[in-house]
């Protein structure tokens, strides 16, 4: 599994935007499709809300990629 660290710029990032920002998908539409298909989990639970607010300390898994979300510096 590939590990990716993502540092927030604000309080949260929407799930479909996070997938795009870390390079898992090329567009927000592809991110929304992955989430809708149930291919993404947040903190070990399947997440189907495309605009779920992902905050610092959460972990997102999609395929063979694990994203750890870090607080802004």
Name its key features:
single chain, 73 residues, Structural Genomics Hypothetical 15.5 Kd Protein In mrcA-pckA Intergenic Region, Chain A, five-stranded mixed beta sheet, two-stranded antiparallel sheet, 2 helices, 7 strands, globular
Q: How are the SSEs ordered, and which strands pair?
A:
Layout: E1 2-7, E2 12-14, H1 15-21, H2 28-36, E3 40-42, E4 45-46, E5 53-55, E6 59-62, E7 65-70
Q: Going across the major beta sheet, what is the strand order?
A: 1-7-6-3-4
CATH domain class name: Alpha Beta
The beta-strand count equals 7
* Name given to the CATH architecture: Roll
- Which descriptor suits the 3D outline? globular
- What class, by secondary structure content? alpha+beta
Helix content: 10-25%
First-to-last CA distance: 26 Å
Structure description:
There is one protein chain. Helix 1 (15-21) packs across helix 2 (28-36). The model has no long low-confidence stretch (mean pLDDT 96). Strand 3 and strand 4 (45-46) form a beta hairpin. This protein has two helices and seven strands; from the N terminus they run E-E-H-H-E-E-E-E-E. The chain has a single domain (2-70), classed as Roll (Structural Genomics Hypothetical 15.5 Kd Protein In mrcA-pckA Intergenic Region, Chain A), CATH 3.10.290. 22% of the residues lie in helices and 37% in strands. The strands form two sheets. It has a five-stranded mixed beta sheet with strand order 1-7-6-3-4, with no helix packed on it. The N and C termini lie far apart (26 Å).
